[in-house]
Amino acid sequence: MSDVSYTLADLCDLAGVTPRTVRYYVAEGLLRSPGTSGPGARYGEGHLARLRLIRRLQREHLPLAEIRRRLAALDDDEAIALAGGPAGPPPDSALDYVRGVLARRGVAASGRSAVPPPAAAVALPAPAIERRLLVDSSGPQWWSADGSLTPPPERSQWERIVISPDVELHVRRPLTRSQNRAVARLLDEARRLLEEEQP
Amino acid sequence: MTLEIRQDRHYIRSASRSTRHLLVRVVAPAGDRRAERLPITVALVLDRSGSMAGLKIGLAKQAVDRALSAIDDRDRFAVVVYDDQIDVVAGLAPAAREAKDRARERLGAIDARGTTNLAGGWLAGCEQVALGQGDERVARALLLTDGLANVGITDPAELEHHAGELRRRGVATSTFGVGADFDEALLQGMASAGGGHFYYIERPAQIPDLIASELGEALDVVARAARLQILLPPGVDARVIGPRPLLRSGDCWAVELGDLVSRQELDVLLALNFPHGSDGDEMPVRVSATDADGALAGAPGVAGWTYADHRTNDAQPRDRALDRIVASNHAARARQEAVRLNRGGDLAGASRLLRDVARKIRGYAGDDPQLLELADALDREAAVEFSVPMAEPTRKAVHAASYRVLASRDVLGRARRSDPDDRA
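YS: structure for the whole thing
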């Protein structure tokens, strides 16, 4: 890893976040403290990589506590490698990948088809950043990357959207188009308000 | 193939970090019309939800009919329709006459109904394409919708993730959004991550032409899975200005370009952030292009910056043509974000964003009339169009126009070509 260092302003510009957000993440233990404060504070490539990973994992609706846990397990080189995206050939074919996703989500094509029914859930190698989504009609459940969750018996789905460590929204799918737009506006506004509240 | 490099100035600051832009223009070689084109495997995935009833579903069927006429038994195709259920109307098969006739007949019986399992329909189409994958094929799923993903996988980040993973595995995705109710950020995100293209279809009558145009490009590919490889000195960070995926392995960065067609002209704009250094030290950057067909092999391009003091940096001349490209790309990004803010009701935020970009452009415009005109336009939009809730078709149009700037597409959403008449 190089000895590159960034000022807070440079770091924010590269990562697309505000200084307030960086200070919040340091306070919450998602980023290491730069060691000094004020204009002399310097941040490294590891900080930049972690900021990018935090944003990516937030887009996947992971709670901050979970993001903190995952980042704590990475050294700087690993964080930089993950933040840059996957390198090298993928471990499986497109067909295996699609069938793995379809099987985990309990989706099957119906009607006339020349395609045999999807194979049983494929045990894919755990991705470096595993995804978790809430699929349930009776209460919270989780599925993990090996597809071990049984699809719920009823058709309704609840989506759990984490807005901040202490605030989340539960949405039952499907919604109408206008409801989806309203939820999107609600989430944007809630994140904006809660970000302003952060120290 | 040509690879043209344009760098933003030649000096960087010794005593502080510097941001400089690098424009890489890739021009794909001409396809040899006498040679065999690459066969394609294509899935046409159509939204049949209730809102597609009437003219839209009829024109979507016309688009499929026209697409089937354009391919032959070298190619493979599948047709998938979806609402909250997914139906494989025609499973993957060689595009022989009988298979095409059967597909047309079955599609003729399809009507609009139900809600929108966009993810399920799209993944079913990708599954069909994946069944027919071969080493020497262009593999692509074309997704047409007029609505949102409101059943099944609905998270845009997850759908983009899957599109990117499928692109890595050789299946590209292009998306077509019809009307005013679809999620343009979702469809653009899926297409960008998926190595394909996004189209805004303002009027249903455009459906057949735009799908035919995209399929025509798939039949005219000369360089599959094209990529720019960029070797940066240690400590230099890079961002792509635009929707293309950027990967990194140590000091080697890669920008995914998707499949390139005959004589396609593609601009990739990068923002490079340099650390401070010592006067006179040089920072070279090497750029090369690769693809699955060896069509882009050629000598790498080289750019380089030299550390100097503030006075030397401030006195250096600017490349105004490059400045204009940088400004128009930043303006396009800002307009897309301003559309999102406007839709969310943050009118002040949308206006503020556009004014900020206008101010930054004026900071380096000097007396360049085009740059100043762009800054004025952004200020006008901030004060007028974006200061009130925009009509949804207007938002869609602004978003799509910005996408075409960022993705080097022409005004009709097609690949830009060095020879505009070179179209299949």
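YS: worth flagging: The longest strand of chain A covers residues 157-164.
IM: good catch. Also Confidence is low (pLDDT under 50) at residues 109-155 of chain A.
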